[in-house]
Amino acid sequence: MDPKTKVAVLISGRGSNMEALIRAAQAPSCPFQIALVLANKPDAKGLEIAAEAGVEALCVDQKPFGKDREAHERAIDAALRERGVEVIALAGYMRILTPFLVDAWEGRMLNIHPSLLPKYPGLDTHARAIAAGDVEAGCTVHLVTAGVDEGPILGQAHVPILPDDDDHTLAARVLEQEHKLYAATLARFVSEQRIKA
Hints:
By secondary structure, the protein is of the alpha/beta class. 38% of the residues lie in helices and 22% in strands. Helix 2 links the parallel strand 2 (32-39) and strand 3. The active site is at residue 113.
């Protein structure tokens, strides 16, 4: 039996998608394991959740690096390589990445975004979808590239927008789909990577 692909999840807050990935990885048939949860803020609640689930939880605090984002990312990169991480899953990691980290992990870094990309990259996706009169919203898992939310799409889930939805009710329903979509897309992605290898 092949060893499972080692995935690191990068978070900035509670990390509900991270929690869903940890749960999914516990299934014997899952092709990935969560080898590390890494946060850029020491008070990220997700660190506690990861540790309680028996996953290594590490903070590489951005503060000591000041405005030098690349130096911060070099410290993150070193921690990932030290642990033999093969794939990165961004899950509510609220920092815009520099070309250093994007290039270093090209083709091996995934992100989940709460809209049906290419619609509504960036923030306030649910409010923007409702304001536009869209009949559906959703979420997208994509590869990370230099452009914000522009990488190749790996998977999407569609969620109808109901007449009485506001951005909070819609966000809650989209989040349920995010949890399912991210785990399923990541599993398919790592399985395909192994076949290529």
